[in-house]
Each structure stands twice: as C-alpha cells, then as structure tokens.
Write a structure and sequence with these properties.
By secondary structure, the protein is of the alpha+beta class. It has a domain of about 120 residues: Beta Polymerase, domain 2, CATH 3.30.460. It is about 50% helix and about 15% strand. It contains eight helices and five strands; from the N terminus they run H-H-H-H-E-E-H-E-E-E-H-H-H. The protein has a five-stranded mixed beta sheet. Helix 4 packs across helix 5. The N and C termini lie far apart (about 150 Å). The relative contact order is 0.09.
Length: about 200
C-alpha cells in the first residue's frame, strides 16, 4: 500500500489545511467611498449672523450732509442765521459800552471801523484821541474795568504806562487810544478805511 507523507503538526504544508486557514480568517475593510459625503459632514458651514436693520451714518461731514439731504441743510440755515444775529447784537452791545466809556472820559474824535471780512485779528476797530498821558491811561483803565463788568473777560492792555499809543484788546473789537500827534503819524483810520480799499481795487 502506498503511504502518504504525514502532515506537520502546524498544518502549513498540507494544501487542505492552508485553504481552510485562509477561509477561516476574515478581513474587515472599510467601504470605499469617494470622500464627498464624509468631507461635507466634517466641514463646518460658516455661521451667518444677520445684523439688525440699523442705518450707518457716513463718516465725513460732506457724506453726512449728502445723506441728510436738502431738508436738513434747509433746517440748519435758520439756526446759523440766528447765531449770526446773536453774535452781531453782542458785538453792538460791547461797542456801546466802549463808546460810552470813552465819552465819559472826554475822548475826542471817536471813530469806529468795520473790519469784518477784511481783517483776521478783529471785526471792529475803535480809534480815539486823548490830550495827555494821564488822560489816556485813565481811559484805558476805566475801559478795561467796564468791559470786564460787561462779561468780556480777559482784556489785555498794551502801552498804558505813559505812552502816546495805548491798545485795548476786547477780542472782536480792538481800541486804539492816541495822542493827537501819534494819531496823525500812524493814520490807522486811513489805513483801514473802506475808501482806501475801493481805490486799490479800482487801480
């Protein structure tokens, strides 16, 4: 009788045992996908925040005026006009205080010049003449005190210590006090007169 070779104890050399061992092993594999669904599920969609319905005003004054429209500009016009009228009335009141003070101190040849739009340092100029140093110093001291009482505040005075020309700065009104010879020499009223401006414009 023909004898077959005995199989090894491990069974690796026997063909039947090899097939059986391979079939008994189960390999778990993940299902193959194209990756579209998994990537979409993992990807977080951006959050959309709905802002409340608020009107954002532009930044520059020009853009604000354009956004406001002509009605807002027309509404502001009377307000600006009222402010201009109030400023002019305040200026007239200060001028009246100055003129009254100079007249009380016997100042001569009082002249008022309107420099609005013509000079950057003031809107009006008042020029007056005093006959002596003591008179001019007294006029400056009285005028300074009356302007403070009228609410002008700080009123600087230059040249009050015995000079032929004293300047009182009341802000929108500047007062010049001269001796007769100094006033004739400097001729401020001629320098700032409207007639001189008209002559230069004609030339």
């Amino acid at each position: 009788m023909r004898q077959w070779p005995r199989p090894c104890s491990s069974g690796r050399d026997h063909p039947v045992n090899s097939v059986t061992s391979l079939e008994s092993k189960t390999i778990a594999r993940k299902p193959i996908t194209d990756g579209t669904e998994s990537s979409k599920s993992r990807r977080t969609s951006p959050r959309t925040v709905t802002a409340p319905n608020m009107a954002v005003s532009p930044g520059s004054p020009r853009k604000k005026a354009a956004a406001a429209g002509p009605r807002a500009a027309a509404a502001k016009a009377p307000e600006a006009k009222d402010q201009a009228v109030a400023a002019r009335e305040r200026l007239d009141a200060i001028q009246a205080v100055i003129i009254e003070s100079l007249e009380d101190d016997k100042a001569e040849d009082i002249m008022t010049l309107d420099l609005a739009g013509r000079a950057a340092f003031t809107d009006r100029m008042i020029i007056a003449t005093g006959l002596a140093d003591r008179q001019i110093s007294a006029m400056a001291m009285h005028l300074q005190q009356k302007l403070r009482d009228a609410g002008v505040g700080r009123v600087p005075v230059e040249g009050a210590g015995g000079s032929d020309w004293v300047l009182i700065d009341a802000g929108d009104i500047v007062v010049h006090l001269f001796k007769p010879e100094a006033r004739a020499l400097y001729r401020l009223e001629k320098m700032w007169s409207a007639e001189l401006d008209d002559a230069e414009s004609d030339a």
